Amino acid sequence: MDAGTISTFDPASDADSFRGALGAFVTGVTVITTDSPDGPVAIVANSFASVSLDPPMVLWSPAKSSKRFEHFAGARRFAVHVLSADQRDICTAIIGSKTAISKVPMHLSHCGMPIIEGALATFECNLEATHDAGDHVIVVGRVTKAHHAGGDPLVFHAGKYGAFTQTD
């Protein structure tokens, strides 16, 4: 679609156009990790948001159709990692394999959560609530520990990865 061209559509019957419209929103890229009987697992998600400062809570939304959904739908603990612009290879590896986290620079937290090294921010969470949301589930986590570092984020827009550029 050309810049400036407006297309009106029914999102219930035109999923491709709806996906395209959603892609107009620039998001950061996160990787969610948890421990499982199979070892550490990870999933990439751009559906991440802050919920509350008091108490500290965040949310993310896994797709029910994901092959990794079962690992995260019932997870009592998880960690959300905001990836830096130079961590696209981590994102690509995790998209390709649920166990790729074992090859990513990481360590286990005091409670056994896989923590990716070099992320811009990490939020260690206990599950607070889940809410059914169509073909996704909204997962709300209470943040028990957070880590923050400086740097540029990896971003996602219109189906492509990029980096944030600051303007004055």
Low-confidence stretches: none
Main beta-sheet annotation = 7 strands, antiparallel
N-to-C CA distance: 29 Å
How many individual helices? 3
Our estimate of the beta-strand percent is 35-45%
Q: What does the oligomeric state look like here?
A: single chain
Rounded to the nearest angstrom, the radius of gyration is: 17 Å
Q: Trace the largest sheet across and list its strands.
A: 3-2-6-9-10-5-4
Number of strands: 12
Percentage of residues in helical conformation: 10-25%
* Element pattern in H and E: HEEEEEHEHEEEEEE
Helix/strand-derived class? mainly beta
Mean pLDDT: 88
Shape: globular
Q: Your description of this structure?
A:
The chain has 168 residues and is mainly β. Helix content is 13%, strand content 41%. It contains 3 helices and 12 strands; from the N terminus they run H-E-E-E-E-E-H-E-H-E-E-E-E-E-E. The chain has helices at 15-22, 69-73, 88-96, and strands spanning 27-28, 30-34, 41-45, 48-53, 56-60, 77-82, 106-108, 114-116, 121-133, 136-148, 154-157, 160-163. The protein has a 7-stranded antiparallel β-sheet. A 3-stranded antiparallel β-sheet has the order 1-11-12, with no helix packed on it. The chain has a two-stranded antiparallel sheet with strand order 7-8. The longest helix has 9 residues, at 88-96. The radius of gyration is 17 Å and the shape is globular. The chain starts with 14 loop residues before the first helix and ends in a 5-residue tail after the last strand. The relative contact order is 0.21.
